[in-house]
Amino acid sequence: MTTSVMDKPGNLPAELTSFIGRRHEIAEVRRLQSASRLVTLTGIGGVGKTRLALRVAEDSRRAFADGVWWVELGELRDSALLAETVAATLGLPDQPGRSMSDLLIDHLSTRQTMLVLDNCEHLLGAVAELVETLLRACPGLRILTTSREVLGVDGERVVRVPPLTVPDTKQTPPLEAMAQYEAVALFVTRATARQPDFALTEANCAAVAGICGRLDGLPLAIELAAVRIRAMSAGQIMDRLTDRYRLLTVGSRVAPTRLQTLRSCVDWSYELCTTKEQQLWAWLSVFVGGFELDAAEGICPEELVADGFLDAVASLVDKSVLVREQVGDVVRLGMVETIRDYGREKLSESGDLHRALRRHLVWYERLVLRAESEWIGPRQTDWIARLDREQPNLREALAFSLTEPVVTTDPDVNARLTNAMFVAFWLCRSQLAEARRWMDRSLTTAVNAQTEERLNSLYDDTVLAGMQAKPDEAAARAAQCRSLAEQLGDPESLETANYASGYMALFTGDLAAAVEPFQAALASAGVRSEVGPPPRRAGYEITRQLGGLLGLAGASGLLGDEETAVACHEQILAITTPREESFFRAHSSWALGQTALQAGDDDRAATLTAQALRLSRKINDPAMTGWCLESLAWKERREGKPTRAAVLMGAAEALAKAVGSESVTLTYLQGHHDECERLTRDALGTRAYGEAFRTGTEMSVDDAVAYALGDRQTDKPRATPAAPLLTRREAEVADLVAEGLTNKEIAATLVISPRTAQGHVEHVLSKLGFTSRTQIAAWIAENHQERLH
User: Fold this and answer.
1) Rounded to an integer, what distance in angstroms lies between the CA atom of residue 104 and that of residue 84?
2) How far is CA 339 from CA 219, 426, 519, 587, in A?
3) Please, are residues 177 and 200 in contact by the beta-carbon 8 Å criterion?
4) Other CB atoms closer than 10 Å to residue 275's CB: what's the count?
5) Which one has a higher pLDDT value, 735 or 169?
6) What is the pLDDT of residues 44-58, one digit of tens each?
7) In this structure, what DSSP letter does residue 448 have?
8) DSSP code of residue 3
9) Distance (Å, rounded) from C-alpha 686 to C-alpha 336?
10) Other C-beta atoms within 10 Å of 112: how many?
11) CA-CA distance, 249 to 262, in Å (whole number)?
């Protein structure tokens, strides 16, 4: 007679609520259990280690003839009672004169058993010793433990339990895609249990996504938030999560005390840390979005760094306070927001918060200034990547640098930061809108900054405004720069104003007016480099000089002065090539390509533009990548390849929108764009042009570059047939629109709400670039004819 799972011994607690997600983690635990007799689930408090262990244990019951036994250790305070607790769970009577360890070995050595030791973190030494003893003596025993810190036993395999998956809160996914996120599924399930008429809708979708993101995907926090649905809407919960510890205080009355509120859960983790680890937790909470060890060492006070710093950091990783992330060849550490907020609170209570923020600002100012000084060099891509990783910390530093105490004591610090980040980060990353927001705040707030830094900020903002295709704003900044320089009257200030005037004229399309100020600025820079001392910030000086050479090359070349353009290009290469620099080489190659295009040398223009495209992809410069795609589209149109031209114009347009600019920033090139669009549309017809253009807009950047360079061996873009543009449900809705059904009739046919039907119709119109239902009907008819043929 076969014994059922229900007949097997064991004491697993019943799962009172549904289990959500974790398919990957369950599979990983099973894989490790097949190779190791000890597996530990680690993770931050409230991340769901216990529930995951319970599900794995339940699924494993069939494999253990002598049962799966659950040993709850969370409430055990005396480690001397550990073996007794395990024995009591197994129902073993006390035998005077024999140790409990021996009693356990006698019982387990001949049995096929699985022990689950839950919540071991406060008894690590005792648990490690007992586990090692039992595993050595009991070959049929398997052990699964949960702990905020690994046991450190030989043969132990570790599964770090991450938070549940959450949607992107910056761009909430469509309603139908929300169920794939584990955190959303958990919130909806628990909220429905509390309030049966609760449902995820278009109206509350963004709020639920925001709740899950704000709570870092932590199951405990999400369950505590879902309880509030009885008295609040999802939007109200989201609004009140600023003070999450106060809001999330009502949990299960039968749960362990440490799990009844989010606050007590994090308190439990804090109490398990040594004094030094607690201090380090607080100080490291000053970081935003993660950090690297050099930053941690630079920001923490000397007494924390002097002795055992790396051991303390490693211990916080082991205790799941810090999360370790591998980013390429670099290891970064970070905290989920809930843990970080707790640390900030402790830092504030100690009176060290302002001191920590000040040290954070000073360290990141040094980092950015060092990046600026080494940027024209072989480490350019490394510095761009580092500043990419540090962007949240840089934003934190910039914001703090504008607070009143800092502005009063060091009015230049914000201007130094913004000017150093101008080319080294914002320009090469095409983060024009953000750069201008910081520049504007700097120019408005740091009014007492040194005139040198203020002049540099006005020049930088002139270029940024021009890159955004806002010539009036560029002209206003250039005029302010000129006025301030003339007040000062020194050659260096006038040089800065000339650079600004040159770019202002370039972006407004007055090529002739751009040449003279660029020439004057470059001549002045040359004289100063020959007779004067090296500039205090040589990195900024050289990037500005290279920018002036680029501006002069562009203006001269398009005016027909190819000799000057080539001479500027050669000077740029002479500076950048030995240093293995990419950003300015890419811009110079593209500018020289425009000169060749203007002269009618299409082949040379294409070669130079392709070279610029490869260099811009090396450093992931989206604006220059888009300019190159646009220029290559013009070449394809001239060679009689209108489909390729349309695809590339679409790709360029998508990149430009992504960075908040235009595919053609320089006014004098707009004619090439307009001509290419008109002639390509005429050659293909409106419908075919639209489809090819949409294909380009939907390509990834890498695919668009490969297509532009001919690395994809086809004369046609990757097929984007009608149906794949839409989801299955959107395609159904489009068919019903073509049949003439109203939104209400579509809702009745598909058994959905009229509001949902309206949302689907709007999505179809947006994806296809249409403005009317009639266009949808015509599109469906055309695609139906194509399928027939």
Assistant:
1) 9
2) 14, 30, 56, 44
3) no
4) 7
5) 735
6) 888 889 889 999 999
7) T
8) P
9) 50
10) 15
11) 7
What is the 3-class SS of 374-440, one letter each residue?
A: HCCCCCHHHHHHHHHHCHHHHHHHHHHHCCHHHHHHCCCHHHHHHHHHHHHHHHCCCCHHHHHHHHH
Token pair in block for residue 619 = 């450093």
How far apart are alpha carbons 38 and 133 in whole angstroms?
12
The token duo for 49 is: 């280690």
CA angle 223, 168, 465 (to 5 degrees): 145
Q: Is 98 exposed, middle or buried (0-12, 13-18, 19+ CB in 10 A)?
A: exposed
Render pLDDT for 162-211 as a digit per residue (tens, 0 to 9). 989 898 877 888 888 888 898 998 999 888 888 888 889 989 999 999 88
pLDDT at 787: 39
Long-range contacts of 169-174 (CB under 8 A, 24+ apart): 169/209, 169/210, 169/213, 169/214, 172/205, 172/206, 172/209, 173/209, 174/759, 174/763
Whether 250 and 227 have beta carbons less than 8 Å apart is answered as: yes
* Alpha-carbon span 480 to 456, nearest angstrom: 11
Owner of token pair 């530093």: 397
Task: Note the Cα 643 to chain centre separation in Å.
Answer: 34
Residue 608: pLDDT over 60: yes
Joined together, the tokens standing for residue 172 give 């909430």
Nearest CA to 622 out of 377, 428, 438, 420 is that of 428
- Residue linked to tokens 């006390």: 94
Distance CA 403, CA 418 (A): 15
Q: What residue has token string 């019943």? A: 14
**pLDDT band at 243; cut points 50, 70, 90:** low
Buried b (16+ CB within 10 A) or exposed e, 313-334: bebbbbbbbbbeeeeeeeebbb
